[in-house]
Design goal:
By secondary structure, the chain is of the alpha+beta class. It contains three helices and nine strands; from the N terminus they run ααββββββββαβ. It is globular, with a radius of gyration of 16 Å. The protein has a five-stranded mixed sheet, with helices on one face. Strands 5-6-7-8 form a four-stranded mixed sheet, covered by helices on one side. α1 runs parallel beside α3.
Length: 156
């Protein structure tokens, strides 16, 4: 338990340090290089039902997800976040809660779920579901680094 918590804090500290470079003083080529280097990539594998988060190219988190169940497609491709909501309620699915939503294509989002027992297998209407703690961490990373410096890549 202690090791897992320590590792998480170290990973978050590394991410925040990277964001500090992005927000720090500087101009010209060095500042542009800092901006380019401070990025988050969330790579979601539909076949593995996992999400790996890379911060500045370094693997930082690996989480189980639930993506689209039979008959509900999760789109593949590379996306930038389009909007974020600390709490959103689905207008399409009976006001279902979608905490820590990072939308990336229309109504598709990476968000928290209470159905944590289903993580690791397809179970959603197409969104990418995460454990609430992981969704909160991802949401915070996107807030820190900014949507412009975040990519969500979904592969089969």
């Amino acid at each position: 338990m202690y090791t897992a918590i320590s590792a998480k804090l170290i990973n978050i500290a590394a991410a925040v340090t990277g964001a500090a470079l992005l927000l720090g003083a500087g101009n010209g080529v060095a500042h542009a290089a800092n901006r380019a280097a401070n990025q988050i990539v969330a790579r979601i594998s539909l076949s593995q039902q996992t999400m790996e988060v890379l911060v500045d190219g370094r693997p930082t988190f690996a989480w189980k997800v639930s993506t689209g169940a039979r008959g509900h497609v999760t789109p593949t491709g590379s996306f930038k976040p389009t909007r974020m909501h600390q709490m959103w309620y689905s207008k399409k699915y009976d006001n279902a809660p979608m905490p820590h939503s990072v939308f990336f294509k229309g109504g598709y989002a990476v968000h928290a779920t209470n159905f944590v027992k289903r993580l690791g297998q397809p179970a959603s209407h197409g969104c990418v579901r995460l454990h609430p703690d992981n969704a909160a961490d991802f949401y915070q990373l996107v807030e820190i680094f900014g949507p412009a410096n975040t990519r969500i890549v979904i592969v089969k």
